[in-house]
Amino acid sequence: MKLLAQIKQSIESYLLKTHGIAEDAQLILSDLNHADFQYNGALKFAKQLGVAPLKIAEEIVEQLTQYVQDVEIKAVAPGYVNFIYTQSYIEDALAPLVTGDVKPNIVDKKRIMVEYTDPNTFKVFHIGHLMTNAIGESLARLFEYGGHDVIRANYQGDVGRHIAQAIYGVLNGDIQRPADDAPLKEKTEYLGKCYVYGAQQFEASDDAKAKIREINAHIYNNDNEEINAWNQKGRNWSLERFEELYKILNTKFNYYFFESQTAPIGLEKVKANIPSVFVESDGAIVFKGEEYGLHTRVFINKEGLPTYEAKDVGLAYLKHEKEPKLNISITVTANEQAEYFKVMKKAVECIDLKIASPMMHVYHGMMSGPGGKKMSSRKGDVVTGESLIEDAMERAREVIEEHYKDKKTAAEKDAIAEAVAVAAIKFTILKQDSSKNIMFDLEKALSFEGDSGPYLLYTNARLCSIIRKSSGLMNVLGRMFSAKKSDPVGELERVLMQFPIVAERAVEAMESHRITTYALELSRAINSWYGSHKVIGSGEYEAYRLRVVQAAQQTLKTCIELLGMKAVEEM
RNA sequence: GCUUUCGUAGUUCAAUGGAUAGAACGCGGGUUUGCGGUACCCGUGAUCUAGGUUCGAUUCCUAGCGAGAGCACCA
Length: 571
Known about the structure:
Strand content: 5-15%
Low-confidence stretches: 376-381
Mean pLDDT: 91
Number of strands: 14
Oligomer: single chain
Number of helices: 22
Radius of gyration: 28 Å
Structural class: alpha/beta
Helix content: 55-70%
Shape: flat
Largest sheet: 5 strands, parallel
Strand order of the largest sheet: 7-6-5-11-12
């Protein structure tokens, strides 16, 4: 927003000229009881300059008052500079909010790749994938909103021991195979069961362990027809099923990378850097992280096969080959990989600094159930990402069915139920600082009351309903507006004005939960306003209030979409 | 053991080193002829402990206690 940028710049130039301080003057939100926003630099520099903070604040106010008329500026003890928008400025500022033209003020545009979701063929899509997907997608949307160039990538595991374990299960387990024309979901469930069986046998029996190793070697060498056929078939089933899920989750990717592509590249890069970076140890090729305060990890195992580590080295090269001009290359995973990622990145750095420098790890906490237990895909007995989506949809369908009875077609109701279910799940994941662990309470996530995804959608739908009912008026709003009466600016208008500052900070800090928190606050303000302001039929206030409704709806919709949800107009 | 992340109402979460620590659920009490009550309003209640830095600490530093995660051929 122009005004904010102008104020920021004025403060910066004042500090530089008068006090010789080069400062990135951050304007921050204030408690609405005090002001709309504030600058706290006077408190920060008072000591350093040997001047009373209030005096500096007063000087800043004096400086700014010369240039700026749209806000009231006050210096307040002990040294805050408070800014309060004028009524007329807020009335004017509603217009760009209505059209959605408010964008964060990000100067430094970057090219950013975000890699997220990363499920493995033959395995179920579990809750961790759901989390990574929700977080990665909302980050990507945030970056786009901030004006950055965004590339979405998904790195799917289609080789490795887990496949061998699954195929062992297919060939040796006594598990009912689905028919050729069975739904994809049944097919992938079958593969999941085979994997669980194979993984259990791997631990339980030396004979199975040997056979699985053999199968794994066959996969890498591509030299056994039956194994190849199952590998192909299972891979296709899984990938097609994942696409169904991505669609439900409102995600699309620009690039799909596969471990089968990265493995040979990684193998070659690692081998080419022995012994300068990697060394042989106990029959394996390892990277000694201890020299950098990290730990040692195996990149090529005894059998000469690349591990996850080597494949990730290959992935780094593959990304660079496809997108050589990346400023930032983000990988979103669970925090259990935090230490791993440091070692892997350091190894890539030792090979080629240029490849490693954009690499950045964004990790999220682990999700646990109300019992506090880790949710794992290895033991079988778990809530999966798929089952969670299904449960949520089923619950949402009941409510929607109850609400609409036979007023809408089944397809319409289904679409609404899907949007509500996805919002419920994503909200739970995105409502808090994502690096912390998440306690997932199924009941609470699906609840339609209080802090929840459905609450945001409901608020939006309420506003849409008013807009629909006033469609005739909307067209003439522009010319009616200035001639009619406005309400005194209240909480809702002022919360709306906070959006640019919130969005800017969310983009810079890469923190989607700031959008969630704001969306909740906005929704509360909207519902509260709704209770005390009649819109349609409010006579001379109608035009102004409709504009407030439009600005609020547009802003809330933007928030909902930044979180990767669908802002349905009815629910 | 080492490394790492975290510790805020009864519960689940907020708060660039700044003003009276902000919500939701729960609990108690209210609001309807006005556009969607899946809403709104009022009340209730919290910064793990001990030091330190600072005009000022939930935030930064140190130690302790407690919880999660990682630490060699899985991903």
